[in-house]
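Course assignment 3, question 2. Fill in each field.
Student: A.L.
Task: Predict the tertiary structure for the chain below.
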Amino acid sequence: MVDKIGISAVAPVNIAGNAGGTGAGGTAFSDLVREFADKTVDAHLFAEKETIAAVDNDAELVDIVSAVANAEITLDTVVTIRDRVIHAYQEIIRMPI
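Answer field:
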């Protein structure tokens, strides 16, 4: 399901230098990203399902608005995280060697 949004299955290198290794918390960073991506896709699929149900008059307006708002918040979170990662990368690139 992660492949639907374009995240590859390549495990990142952690601070210790082990590809796909676990950090101090015991969970690999790639697993955290994959889990968050799955939840994001699920939120958007649920919003689509509720919207389709609204067309068939099978859903309440409150459920539709809640699902769409949840999907919007999730997308905003993904975009914010992406922007911060890009900003951090740019700061690292600007560091003198």
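Instructor remarks: Residues 1-17 have pLDDT under 50 and may be disordered. Residues 2-94 form one domain.
Grade: pending
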